[in-house]
Amino acid sequence: MGIEGKEKVKTLETGAHALSGQLGKTIQRLRKAYNLSLSELAEQSGVAKSIISQIERNETNPTLATIWRLSQALDISIERVLSISDDEPFIDKTIRGDTPALTSDDGKVKLNIIGWIKTVEWLQWYDVEAQAGGVLESDAHQRGSIESLSVISGEMEVEVAGVVQTAKAGETLRYRCDRPHIVRNVSKKPAHATMVCILKAAVME
User: Same domain, yes or no, for 106 and 60?
Assistant: First the structure.
């Protein structure tokens, strides 16, 4: 399940949150560099003035969709918005309670976003927790995108364009995700897996 572009704004709004101590300062610095008032940035981005103010004061953790809108209004990439200073330690740690997550429509599949937020436009990876019978349906990502699902425990199934394949613990499924695709937990107990989505990857034949 990828997160990219305008077509993914709806998915982003389901609960993915970006956590960065420098985010508020970065947004404020860029806004002032463009000589924009809070009201002007709100009008150009479609993000409420009050929300932008809270972001700048680091009083809220905005969704990736909100960050995407702000980055478009400021004419920069999400990576730059979320960039940190060069003197920051190379090792970064996110505790379990602060790990952003997405939940499937049926509420039975949870995607913990463990990938680096700066690579979200081209590389994403998740820790997947699926209850028995859980189903994760995803729209097509951009052409050439592929996904890799490595099962840690339980048994999971992937369906793409009518083709179905299953994998047990220790097995990996790789598939084109530039078309609608479905991931299911077909076991009678919780399943655990890691999922990596590479956007704009070479098309699998």
Answer: no
- Residue 27 falls in which region: left (phi positive, over 0), alpha (psi -120 to 50) or beta: alpha
Q: Are 137 and 182 in contact (CB under 8 A)?
A: yes
Q: Which amino acid is it at 173?
A: L
Cα gap 18→30, rounded to integer Å: 18
For residue 11, being part of any structural domain is answered with no
Phi, psi of 183 (to 5 degrees): -115, 130
Hunting for tokens 């991931």 — which residue is that? 183
pTM (global) more than 0.70: no
Question: What's the domain range around 156?
Answer: 100-198
The CATH number for 178's domain is: 2.60.120.10
Give the whole-angstrom CA distance, residue 131 versus residue 133: 6
Ordered mean pLDDT values, 10 residues apiece, the chain (205 residues): 47 40 77 80 93 89 86 75 57 76 92 77 89 95 91 98 97 95 96 92 52
Q: Are residue 74 and residue 104 in the same domain, yes or no?
A: no
| Greatest Cα-to-Cα distance within the chain, rounded to the nearest angstrom | 57
Q: Are 73 and 41 in contact (CB under 8 A)?
A: yes
Q: Into how many domains does the chain fold? A: 2
